[in-house]
UniProtKB/TrEMBL annotation:
Pfam families: MNHE (PF01899)
Region Disordered, annotated ranges: 185-213
Compartments, record wording: Cell membrane
Similarity comment text for this entry: Belongs to the CPA3 antiporters (TC 2.A.63) subunit E family.
Biased segments, Basic and acidic residues type: 196-206
Protein name: Na+/H+ antiporter subunit E
């Protein structure tokens, strides 16, 4: 029974490493001015050697892609890049602006290596934020954020990161991961609604007591 499963697991491991092999091959071919049989063969050999000598955990793909969510993800990324670029440019020429930056820790909703990597890349593409470290096992992102003078600025950056992760999961994550981020989104909305109702009741009670809480 062990001998029967061994070839299957070996082929499964090769299949999981296939996206990395293809990416390394494409990177190798981009370094050359032309593509021929020799460059392809040497690229494949180098890709296999790199994946064997510098072993990385296999990238597990979900096998799911939502074109509409993918389009929304791309459009939102472009809007974020343009807005952040204008904001950073305005900061750089504003003579009275004193920069105050922070290292922020964000707990992601998923533990997927693919989602974590894509989220970190998307954050770093946007000017003003860059990922400085990743705790892969605990799903933590450590990022340097520009212009975080108040707690509200930090909270906004935190929501921005989780929003990027959410859009990536809804576009290409597994069904289980999508359900997790949807549940977290519903919980945040319910929490925000509860907080707003609590504040409204608090202000009403203050008015009835002559302005005293």
């Amino acid at each position: 029974m062990t001998h029967t499963n061994e070839p299957v697991s070996r082929w499964r491991s090769v299949w999981r490493q296939l996206p990395l092999l293809v990416a390394l091959l494409v990177l190798w071919l981009l370094l050359w001015d032309h593509i021929d049989a020799l460059s392809v063969v040497t690229g494949l050999l180098l890709a296999v050697a790199v994946t064997r000598a510098l072993y990385l955990p296999p990238v597990l793909l979900s096998g799911r892609f939502n074109p509409w969510r993918g389009l929304l993800l791309g459009l939102r990324m472009m809007v974020d890049v343009v807005f952040a670029s204008l904001q950073v440019a305005a900061y750089s020429i504003w003579p009275w602006w004193k920069p105050m930056n922070s290292i922020i820790v964000v707990q992601l909703h998923t533990r997927s290596d693919l989602v974590t990597t894509l989220t970190a890349e998307a954050i770093s593409v946007v000017p003003g934020t860059v990922v400085v470290d990743i705790d892969r096992e605990r799903g933590l992102l450590y990022l340097h954020a520009l212009g975080t003078r108040t707690q509200a600025d930090i909270d906004r950056t935190h929501r921005h990161v989780l929003g990027i992760e959410e859009r990536i999961v809804l576009a290409m994550g597994t069904h289980e991961q999508a359900e997790v981020v949807r549940a977290e989104r519903r919980a945040r909305r319910a929490g925000g609604t509860t907080a707003r109702h609590s504040d409204m009741h608090h202000h009403e009670a203050s008015d009835q007591n002559g302005g005293t809480p």
